[in-house]
Amino acid sequence: MQKFKKTVVIGFVGSTLDQGKKLDRWQRWRPTMSLLMHEDLVVDELVLLHDRRNVSLIDHLRQDALEISPQTQITGHKVNIRDPWDFSDMYGALYDFVKSYSFDTENNHYLLHITTGTHVAQICWYLLIDAHYLPAKLIQSAPTGKQQPEGEYRVIDLDLSRY
Predict the structure, then answer these.
(1) Angle, in degrees to the nearest 10, between helices 87-100 and 119-130
(2) Using one digit for the tens of pLDDT, what is the confidence trace for 92-105?
(3) Among the residues of 6-144, which ranges form H helices?
(4) pLDDT at residue 44 tops 90
């Protein structure tokens, strides 16, 4: 019998695209919230990396999540990145996060949301997964071009031995 594992999604808060306090925010695609709108993807925990400027956005997203996915626990994790476009700064911050985070692969299945964050962050995430510091598959969300706030998503397994 296969053990049920919870799904934990880790990623940066979308400091621009996840914004919105007016009602029309529900009519447009927001990368973080879109992940919670799919019936075939149950997110048990959403870990959002952020800087000091986005603490209130995390609180707002937590409130929005209660409306569409009340079972999802949202936690914010503050990271200090001086320059999100500087490779060594970004890699160091993400490496520190990965080393300090308590991964429980016996009970959790991890997905890393690569849609939010800079291109430098995406490269660093990939390197951390490839080096087996981060036990996760990638998840990428995107708008569909239509007026569908849920958009679409793809899970990407970087285990090349599977292909």
Answers:
(1) 50
(2) 999 999 999 999 99
(3) 31-34, 55-68, 87-100, 119-130
(4) yes
Q: Determine how β-strand 152-156 pairs with β-strand 6-12.
A: unpaired
Dist CA 52 CA 43 (whole Å) = 25
Residue 1 has pLDDT above 70, yes or no: no
* Paired sense of beta strands 6-12 and 108-113, if any: parallel
Name the burial class of residue 61, with classes exposed (0-12), middle (13-18) and buried (19+) by CB atoms within 10 angstroms of its CB. buried
Give residues with Cβ within 8 angstroms of 159, minimum separation 6: none
Q: Which residue has the tokens 């969300």?
A: 141
Quickly tell me which residue has 């569409």 as its tokens: 68
The SS3 assignment for 16 reads: coil
Supply the mean pLDDT for the chain.
90
Of the candidates 54, 68, 62, which has an alpha carbon nearest to the alpha carbon of residue 16?
A: 54
> Token pair of 137, please?
């598959």
User: Which pair of structure tokens corresponds to residue 141?
Assistant: 């969300």
Q: How far apart are CA 122 and CA 95, in angstroms?
A: 13
3-state secondary structure of 96: helix
